[in-house]
Amino acid sequence: MRHSPSGGAGHGTAPADGRLLSIGAVLNLLRDEFPEVTISKIRFLEAEGLVEPQRTPSGYRKFSRADVERLAYVLRTQRDHYLPLKVIREHLDALERGEQVPLPAPAQPRDLLDGEPPAVDEPTATRVGRAELLAAAEVGEAELAEWESYGLLSPASDGGYDVGAVAVAKLIADLGRAGLEPRHLRAIKAAADREAGLVEQLVAPLRRHRNPQTRAHAEATARELAGLSVRLHAALVEAALRVRLH
C-alpha cells in the first residue's frame, strides 16, 4: 500500500474520514492549488505508477486521502522544482521508506521579456526519437499524431526530431492543459514560420559568404533576431491583453 508523502497536499487535501473520492472530486480538490491540472494529467500520473487508486467492480477509480496527497506532491514538485517524473518517483519511494528527501531550491520564474528563454530540460543529443519526445512531453501517441496533423511538429525523414521539438512539444502540452487545442495553435505556427522566413531573408547574404567567420556571424545574427522577435511577440500579446482585460 502506498503512503502519503510528508508535507500534505496543501489546499487540495481529501477528507480525513476515510471516504474514497472519484477522479472528478480529486480534480476539484487539486485545482485549488493547481488550476492547470486536468483529468488527463491525473490519468497520466496513474499510468506512470505515481499513484494507484482503487477500482470499483465497474472500473471506476476511487482515490484515498493518501492518493490525493501523493498527486499534490508530484504536481508541486514538478511546478516548483522542475524535476522529472523518474526522480519524483524515487523521492516518493524514499519517503515511503521513512527517508528524508532534500529538494533543490524552487526555480525562480523568468520574465518573458528579459530576453532569456525558459528552461525546458532538453536532452543533450541533437536528435531525439519519437518515444523520447512522447516521454519528455508526457503525452501519448494520439496527441502527438494530432499535433503533427496540424503541422505543429514534423519528424525528419528518419522518423526522429530536432532537439528543439522537445521544447515545442512541452509548450503545446502545457497550452493544451490550459484549454488551447492544436487547431487553435495553427495561427501561432504560421506566425512563427513567417518570422523565421523574415530572419532568413535578412541573414541570407551573410550565409552565402565564402568567409567561414562571416557565415558564423550570420548564425549569431539569426539567433539574436529570433530572440528579439520572441520578445516583441510577448510584448505585443501582453499589450493586447491589457486592452482586452481592462
UniProtKB/TrEMBL annotation:
SUPFAM superfamilies: Putative DNA-binding domain. Signal peptide: none annotated. Keywords: DNA-binding. GO terms for molecular function: DNA binding; DNA-binding transcription factor activity. InterPro entries: DNA-bd_dom_put_sf, MerR-type_HTH_dom, MerR_fam. The keyword Cell division does not apply. Residues 37-94 form the HTH merR-type domain. It holds the Pfam family MerR_1. It comes from the Bacteria. PANTHER family: HTH MERR-TYPE DOMAIN-CONTAINING PROTEIN, REDOX-CYCLING DRUG-SENSING TRANSCRIPTIONAL ACTIVATOR SOXR. This is MerR family transcriptional regulator. The lineage of its organism: Bacteria, Bacillati, Actinomycetota, Actinomycetes, Kitasatosporales.
